[in-house]
Design brief:
It is built from eleven helices and five strands, in the order αβαβαααβαβαβαααα. The protein has 322 residues and is of the alpha/beta class. The protein is elongated, with a radius of gyration of 23 Å.
């Protein structure tokens, strides 16, 4: 809903999944709270991989509502920016794992990569790459896992190298959602290790994810990072709120900082829950009866006071559970 008294067309806390690629300004909205404080290390890994012309891998772990999708989108966006690619020259191969049959996921990845490159209609590709793409699109992907592995590796290297030679250059990224077994990661990392690309993997919120994380952490490599996302503490909420607000308004934030800390200090929460609460509190405050001339920051009554925040967090969370 419009928040005219705050000079806003939309609620700045209303969208919990950031999409940096479609909306470039979203990159600046991602607050460095919880595991997002590790983003500089992720960016350094991307820089190193680009310099070495190899793949960068990032495993994004955490709970439901913890920001895994936003983290993956940020990784994909940073790779595009750091390679100086434009969005129309950047292909994203995204696959959601549903049945954890990793050979099926590999075939889907290869087919989508070929299909999405082919759909661009870019001029300048050699006949060898065009022929290989058509073979893949016609279903020729090898009869066993070893053949599929070799074919996918050869195709991915050829595609990445030829895309880099185009003018302007192009590139691709791989995004696998809801990974749970290390066999899939092992195969993809082996296939793409020497390919100019970035791979973002989000881990399914499942008790078994600890085994996958332990395997990934044991694969010591300068080209891989882990982004652990869990919960936002009360001390971190003001930074999260301020970052979102500043992306939409030049005025000071209409929340008591002390109230945000106190209201959310009883326990850590997933970032999506925090944003939902902030959005609803702002909607409630904007809906209070007042004169049409009442605007923020001229009218101090539009600020959510400490006691109001503490009360609303408790009341709204009760409504979530019903």
């Amino acid at each position: 809903m419009p928040l005219l008294c705050y000079g806003l067309a939309t609620n700045p806390f209303g969208q919990d999944k950031l999409k940096p690629l479609p909306i470039p300004t979203h990159t600046n909205v991602l607050a460095r709270v919880d595991g997002f404080s590790l983003l500089p290390a992720v960016e350094a890994t991307i820089d190193a991989a680009i310099g070495a012309k190899c793949a960068a891998f990032c495993l994004i772990t955490g709970v439901k509502g913890g920001g895994r999708t936003s983290g993956a989108n940020y990784v994909l966006s940073q790779y595009m920016t750091k390679r100086q690619l434009t969005q129309d020259r950047y292909v994203i191969v995204d696959v959601e794992v549903k049945d954890h049959k990793w050979a099926k996921v590999l075939r889907t990845c290869q087919t989508r990569l070929a299909s999405r490159i082919d759909a661009q209609g870019w001029a300048g590709f050699p006949d060898g790459l065009k022929t290989r793409m058509q073979q893949i699109l016609q279903g020729n992907q090898g009869n066993d896992i070893d053949q599929l592995h070799d074919q996918f590796e050869t195709f991915a290297k050829l595609a990445a190298n030829e895309m880099a030679r185009l003018r302007p250059p192009a590139g691709f990224a791989v995004y696998i959602e809801n990974v749970l077994n290390h066999e899939l990661l092992e195969e993809l990392m082996s296939i793409l290790r020497d390919v100019q690309t970035v791979c973002a993997f989000t881990v399914l919120d499942d008790p078994r994810q600890s085994d996958l994380i332990a395997w990934y952490e044991a694969q010591v490599s300068s080209s891989q990072q882990i982004l652990p996302l869990s919960f936002v503490t009360g001390q971190e909420v003001p930074a999260l709120a301020q970052r979102r607000w500043a992306a939409h308004s030049e005025t000071r934030i209409p929340f008591s900082v002390e109230g945000l800390v106190r209201g959310f200090s009883d326990r850590p929460r997933p970032i999506a829950t925090v944003l939902r609460l902030l959005a609803q509190m702002l909607d409630i405050k904007a809906a209070e009866p007042r004169g049409s001339a009442s605007v923020w920051p001229d009218d101090p009554d539009l600020e959510l006071r400490e006691d109001q925040i503490v009360y609303l967090v408790k009341i709204l969370e009760r409504s979530f559970r019903k």
